[in-house]
Amino acid sequence: MSQSRDFLSQRALGVKQSAVRDVFDIAMDPNLVSLAGGNPWLSGLPLDELGKTAGELVSQHGTESLQYGPGQGLEPMRQAACTVMAGDGIPDADPELVVITPGSQAAIDTACRAFANPGDVVVVEDPTFVGALTSFNTWELDAVAAGTDEHGLIPAELDATLELMEAEGRRVAFLYTIPSFANPSGALLPEDRRDEIARICAKHGVLIVEDNPYGQIAFDGRPLAPIAAKHRDQVVYLGTMSKIFSPGVRIGWALVPAALKREFYLSAESAFIHASTHGQMLSTAFVDHFDWQGHVREVSGLYKERAEALWDAVKEHWDPAVEFIRPQGGFFLWGSLPEGADTLELMTEGIKAGAVFVPGAAFTPVEGTHSTLRLAFSFVEAEKLVEGVKRLAPVVNEAVARTR
Amino acid sequence: MSQSRDFLSQRALGVKQSAVRDVFDIAMDPNLVSLAGGNPWLSGLPLDELGKTAGELVSQHGTESLQYGPGQGLEPMRQAACTVMAGDGIPDADPELVVITPGSQAAIDTACRAFANPGDVVVVEDPTFVGALTSFNTWELDAVAAGTDEHGLIPAELDATLELMEAEGRRVAFLYTIPSFANPSGALLPEDRRDEIARICAKHGVLIVEDNPYGQIAFDGRPLAPIAAKHRDQVVYLGTMSKIFSPGVRIGWALVPAALKREFYLSAESAFIHASTHGQMLSTAFVDHFDWQGHVREVSGLYKERAEALWDAVKEHWDPAVEFIRPQGGFFLWGSLPEGADTLELMTEGIKAGAVFVPGAAFTPVEGTHSTLRLAFSFVEAEKLVEGVKRLAPVVNEAVARTR
Q: What ipTM was estimated for this complex?
């Protein structure tokens, strides 16, 4: 018998391992204040009524809700996805071009399967979603970072990156971007940049995968229209029930350009056949028969309060040399310590001090020491957020002092 | 802008397209007798009680059942998977080595991700599961068929295939096999062959992926112990709730050798984060609080009746030159027409005659004309099965006549 490790694929052997990945487990320790996990707040859901619906889906419709469904997703769920996308700012999505997936991570992964060859480049904003980086990693893609500022991706930097890739003869599979209240930066890409980015990608013949889980969690109640709203044929648009309803039902989707739909759908089917029928039917009911927009307004208000409490706390307790992007929506506050600080080390010190955040190293394809960190405010009550910031203050402030 | 088709990956462009894939949609036509789909029969489930449970999981435990869960799966679900595996014939599975996936298709796909490099060989029995072939196809693997008879994979043929691969310097990622009541052949691999296959794979240093969705659907009530029961370190064992409870909840799992668990789990997480929390909790409740084994006995009895009705019907109405493997469990009856018959053509003729089956071409990596077909009896009442066989009789019998 050969050694067991010989069984592993190159990509599995190459999956990036680091202290970062374990932070999500560590964050479950009830003695810690967790500023790590991006969980949505669910207590405001009408659980009694939803329970009644979930029960009836089994007792009265069990032979359907517990059975196999179509690979593309149930038609009513695809309609419900279009209703949600209308709220995102895409009023005219066609349910025929929607593919339902078990969460939007699976949709990101399906995009890799359908559009990327091993060794291709995926251009990302830096920082970007850790789950997307892991998926790119396992598809043996080369994530190349394009520069950002507090408003997200900088068009000129994207253009330069794509030009460089062209000069190097690299195939760019797609641009992966989260324009609205990005994970982890919280940045909101302005409208003019959205059009500019679409124009640049069209010029270079590059597909856009636009991930928009947080778009409706806009603190002013006015989501910016996604890039896909005006540029449908060059964008694979990803939506999800995870932040506006429930991540536990694992229902996400992709709105795909017509010319690419069949392959996207077959790629998805080859990975998981289809998303949970019961989860699709419960999500559909939430959209069709509950005040889902009222729920979004309510949780957005709650997240806004928490974001403000967190903002005030870091401004009061942390060294002013730490810079932040002020969130106008979403779940996250992104901080940058002065260069030279190592937030991976700080994470360990922070855990000893009783609070945990995610260090910036998790969110970038760039190797080396990182002085950035992500604080999540979605799932933690305001007082606890303040407590966490206070616990971290000596750790952070000493690290800043050491850089002087 | 480049042409949209340029956006597609090589693997997406290469996904095998054929009339076969559309048969599953065609089979939904209520005017047809469908002998195509492998759906389980769900009407015997205690839907009222299960509905109550599903409802309570949301109304009383919604902040948990609708929330994110751990990537490896919930601990009670991993325990429940071990309980089911004990029924399969693996009494001592360790929940720490179980990874919960959104159905076992996702587990097959995760095995490709974790163990196979592009261009690797996967050895399969021929015929084999269409979903596995599609997954191998999208991972750019080369499915190589090893010979079978009515008892499944022939050990000497496996040995010869693995020796040939060695001689050609090919890396074999794993053997993919369904030893019990295989999809599509229905064949049951005898006990001595199970050990022999494990020995041959060990000799060649080849991992086994053992897929066992049907093992407990044994018409005599006595499942044969899986290969994994005695050969844990060389087998990734796949189980599922789909055939013994519900495919709509999309809950499957892998029992993984300890040395490979971390990479398998990370590979799974990169694809879909985790399986539906609500689906896991409902599946756990089904195993822990319902008479799941009674349900398995009941549906197995039903499937046995249907299998017999179907057997009698083909023996009565079809030309005796069509050979069958008599099913001792599972969902399927596999038939072989004389060489020269093309069941892909027959499928179209059959649909005109009012019944649909899946032609053998779907289940083999071997190109060319195939004279085999799969009849599914799990979801169709006995009289309808007979009706379907009668409708197909002239089509089948004329095709046989043409070969003479």
A: 0.96
CB contact under 8 A, A270 and B115: no
Of all residues in chain A, what percent carry a pLDDT higher than 90? 92
Q: What's B71's DSSP letter?
A: T
- Give A28's pLDDT tier (boundaries 50, 70, 90): confident
List the one residue out of B201, B248, B215 whose CA is nearest residue B40: B248
Residue boundaries of the structural domains of chain B = 4-44+294-402, 67-289
* Contact at CB, B270 and A56, closer than 8 angstroms: no
Compute how many other C-beta atoms are within 10 angstroms of the C-beta atom of residue B401.
12
Q: What is the mean pLDDT of chain B?
A: 95
CA B215 and chain centroid, separation? 11
Pairwise CA distance, residues B43 & A117, whole Å: 44
Closest chain A residue by Cα to residue B44: A63
Smallest CA–CA distance, residue B109 to chain A, in Å, is 6
Residues 6+ apart with CB under 8 A from A320: none
- pLDDT tens-digit series, residues A200-249: 999 999 999 999 999 999 999 999 999 999 999 999 999 999 999 999 99
Q: Which amino acid is at B316?
A: E
Architecture category of domain A4-44+294-402 in CATH:
Alpha-Beta Complex (3.90)
Find the residue in A nearest to B208 (Cα).
A7
Q: Do B66 and A247 touch (CB under 8 A)?
A: yes
CB contact under 8 A, B39 and A260: no
Q: Are A334 and A365 in contact (CB under 8 A)?
A: no
Amino acid at A188: L
* Region class of B250: left (phi > 0), else alpha (psi between -120 and 50), else beta: left
Please state, in angstroms and rounded to a whole number, the distance separating the CA atoms of residues B106 and B240: 11
Compute the residue count for chain B: 404
Q: How far is A349 from chain B (nearest CA, A)?
A: 25
Say how far apart CA A141 and CA A134 lie, in whole Å: 10
Whether the CB-CB separation of B305 and B98 falls below 8 Å is answered with no
Strand ranges (E), A64-219:
98-101, 121-125, 142-146, 148-149, 152-153, 172-177, 208-211
- What stretch of H or E contains A379? none
Q: Give the confidence band of B14 by pLDDT, cuts at 50, 70, 90.
A: confident
Mean pLDDT value across chain A: 95
B3: pLDDT strictly greater than 70? no
Tracing tokens 């044969």 back to the chain, one arrives at B224
Do the two domains B4-44+294-402 and B67-289 of this chain adopt the same fold?
Answer: no
A176 phi and psi angles, rounded to 5 deg: -100, 125
DSSP string, B326-384: PPSBSSEEEEEPPTT--HHHHHHHHHHHTEE-EEGGGG-S--S---EEEEE-TTS-HHH
**What are the structure tokens assigned to A113, written together?**
């399967």
The yes/no answer on whether domain A68-289 falls in CATH 3.40.640.10 is yes
CATH class entry, domain B67-289: alpha beta
CA distance A133 to B347: 44
A129 CA to chain B: closest CA distance, Å? 12
Question: Which residue carries 């680091």 as its tokens?
Answer: A18
- pLDDT grade, residue A307 (50/70/90)? very high
Res A2 pLDDT > 70: no
| Contacts for A3 with CB less than 8 Å, ≥ 6 apart | none
